[in-house]
Amino acid sequence: MPSNGIVLTSARVLTMDRDLPLANTVVTEGDRITYVGGREGLDEGLIYGKELIDLEGRTVVPGFIDSHMHLVEMAKGRLGLDLGECRSVRDILRLVKQEVEKRPDSEWVAGYNWDESRWKEGRIITIEELDSISPRRPIVLKRVCQHLVVVNSRALELAGVPKGTEGLCLDTKTGKPSGVVQQEARRMVESHLKFSLQKLCDAIETVQKEMLSLGITSVHDMGSDFKLLQRTYNEGRLLIRTHLYVSEGELTKIDEYAAMSNSDNNHLRLGGVKFFLDGSIGAHSAALSEPYADGQGGGRLRWDKEALKNLVSDAHKKGWQVSLHAIGDKAVTMALEVLEHTQIDRPRKDPRHRIEHCELLPEGVLERIKELGIIVSAQPNFVSVWGQPGGMYEKHLGKRRWEAIAPLGRFYRKSIPLAFGSDGMPIGPIYGIWSAVNHPTEESRLEPADALRYYTCGGAFASFEEGTKGTISQGKLADMAVLSGDPTTVPRKKIKDIKVEMTVLGGNILYNNLSQKKVSSL
Q1: 85 burial type by CB count under 10 A (0-12 exposed, 13-18 middle, 19+ buried)
Q2: CA nearest 418: which of 362, 364, 356, 476?
Q3: The listed CATH number (3.10.310.70, 3.30.499.10, 3.40.50.12780, 3.40.50.1100) that belongs to domain 74-190
Q4: 2 falls in which pLDDT band (50, 70, 90)?
Q5: Distance (Å, rounded) from C-alpha 78 to C-alpha 97?
Q6: 438-455 pLDDT per residue, tens
Q7: Which residue intervals of 111-244 are DSSP H helices?
Q8: Under a CB-based contact definition with an 8 Å cutoff, are residues 263 and 290 in contact?
Q9: What angle, 0 to 180 degrees and rounded to 10, lies between the N-to-C axes of helices 305-317 and 329-345?
Q10: In the CATH scheme, what architecture does the domain 6-63+484-488+499-521 have?
Q11: Are 268 and 230 in contact (CB under 8 A)?
């Protein structure tokens, strides 16, 4: 329930509102902001009975908006074996073996978040290695990008994946399954990973609490189960504002979901539909116009262009926002062709269609992106994780394409709308801002204030919610984060050291790590 209100004072408030960029006091009433300005100009009647919090010079920013997240997938990861900290094949096999020994014979063993680019061996686990751990118990290990899974023979057998299935990778020497599954083969395997609704709801709540500790108050969820999130909301456990894009496989149900949703609900909203055009660079499945530098093919497009045009045009005609996952330059080309056709075929004012990731651009497309009014939903954290010199991006793409990856600065200079998110790899807006500011390619770097803008009002604009969130302004939702430092003034390399000390959502303090806050009742 909304609080009686709080007063944040003695603060450096970065409002992101161009009319009043700086303030030192914010007052809330219910779930809204009622005052932004100086303490000296504040009507005492406006703050009577409220909780006064002296922030002693700390920085306040709008609540962060993570514009690309998978809540349910992250929750599933919390219910399985977390392999994110493993640094070798040996580490993986040891943890999986321990997990197998804990579980009864009938249960599937699921692991998440592994990344072979961080392993000593730099290679993917083989089916033989997993079979040696357990020939009887099915094992499914999902890569951090979520586009590639490795399995043992038992998992393939129980999932009924026949040879010739799309995405079933074969060993080039033996012609037998290698253990790597993608696309349809991956979906067949993953359909056997069952989780109780109660456990999923519990895990969703856990993930959201982690997000609140990072200052996140809103997410754009890409493809989660609408009914599951609605159940979580009805139980009062959907803590963070969630703007949901249904997956392409549920496009036929979007009208049903729309009838079930409430457009006035600021906590759970249905935004549109997401289509996958390709995969990821890490899985060698992002669609490239030239082959990967390490000899792993060129990826592939997941759609026939004419079929995709028809589906996107239909969603566009019905008024839905369309989000296209496109990482490789070949996929970005298709995304632009499809969106251009859609707007010419069925003109619509300000549709704000999105390209998710948009990491590798074809030559000369910036003007086209701008003219079409496309929002680029980018993940600057990817650059820090995989885009450093000698990192996975350079190894997979070669020096020329690596230097051109995620051209955030070029988008900015072309005035192309940007919204920042994490895709959960890892979560953390402060880390994302630091990544955007310290991009390894100078022309792709952003100023800290601009990076902050894309994690706040940029996200609000991308979901048509700029009227209610994204800035600290009178009348808007009282969603804010209190930081230990100002990301726009600390040295660029030090931005990642800034801590979130408090998160306010709808006027309620949902995360508080202030060790010396001064509180009094007025």
Answers
A1: exposed
A2: 356
A3: 3.10.310.70
A4: low
A5: 18
A6: 999 999 999 999 999 999
A7: 127-133, 153-159, 183-190, 197-212, 226-234
A8: no
A9: 50
A10: Roll (2.30)
A11: yes
**Which has more pLDDT, 224 or 264?**
224
Residue-wise pLDDT for 363-408, tens only, equals 999 999 999 999 999 999 999 999 999 999 999 999 999 999 999 9
- 3-state SS of 470-513 is CCCCCCCECCEEEECCCCCCCCHHHHHHCCEEEEEECCEEEEEC
Per-residue confidence (pLDDT) for residue 45, from 0 to 100: 80
> How buried is residue 42: exposed, middle or buried, by Cβ count under 10 Å (0-12/13-18/19+)?
middle
Distance between the two ends of the chain, CA-based, in angstroms? 21
Residues 495, 498, 500, CA angle at the centre, nearest 5°?
140
Which residue, chain included where needed, has tokens 């929002």?
Answer: 375
- 169: tokens are 């990778």
What proportions of the chain, in percent to the nearest 5, are helix, strand and coil? 35, 25, 40
512 Cα distance to chain centroid: 24
Provide the residue type at 410 as one letter: R
**Burial class of residue 243 in the structure, from the number of CB atoms within 10 Å of its CB (0-12 exposed, 13-18 middle, 19+ buried):** buried
Residues 198 and 63: their CA atoms lie apart, in Å, by 28
Structure tokens at 517: 């806050």
Burial 120-152 (b: 16+ CB within 10 A, else e): eeeebbbbebbbebbeebbbbbbbbbbbbbbbb
Q: Let me know if 279 is exposed, middle or buried by CB neighbors in 10 A (0-12, 13-18, 19+).
A: buried
- How many Cβ atoms from other residues are within 10 Å of residue 4's Cβ? 13
Give residue 104's pLDDT band: very low, low, confident or very high (50, 70, 90).
confident
**Residue ranges per structural domain of the chain:** 6-63+484-488+499-521, 74-190, 277-469
Q: Would the CA dihedral through 413, 416, 422, 425 be positive or negative?
A: negative
Is residue 331 within 8 A of residue 287, CB to CB? The reply is yes
Helical H segments across 354-443, by residue range = 366-371, 381-386, 392-397, 399-403, 408-413, 429-437
The four Cα atoms 212, 217, 222, 228 give a dihedral, to 10 degrees, of 70
Q: Does domain 277-469 have CATH number 3.20.20.140?
A: yes
